Amino acid sequence: MEKMSADAELLNFIYQNSQMGVETLNQIIPMVENEELKKQLKSQLKEYLEIHKEARELLNHHGYDEKGISAFEKIMTYLMIDMKTLMDQSSSHIAQMLIQGSNMGIIDAIKKINRYEKEAEKDIVSLMKRLLKTEENNVEQLKKAL
Description:
With 146 residues, the protein is mostly helical. It has helices at residues 3-28, 35-61, 71-87, 91-116, 122-143. 81% of the residues lie in helices and 0% in strands. Helix 1 runs parallel beside helix 5 and helix 2 (35-61) runs antiparallel to helix 5.
């Protein structure tokens, strides 16, 4: 794989993954009644926003177009969250849903790092590892709400 596509692939993954985190948390935070959990989620949202902004800046700096998540993916995410939270709005259930999402992000992130680490720019790999760490930290924080 040529270097340019490794960089673009990783950056777009980071961009989309952090966008999904932002979209999901923006939808869930208003539903959360537990103040401790709400505080945690706002802190996670802030981190996703920072990573998203940095990914967009790196994409533009390297001359790539950012590819966000599609309207279809957003709608599917909203429907999934709405259906699940309508049935159960407990902190434990919300934490469980978010842990499942973060675990998928962790698996994808590790695969991407393993695949592109040697080819992609150091700053891009470093941002990817920051996203991975964020997802892992989110899971650890959310376990307390189960």
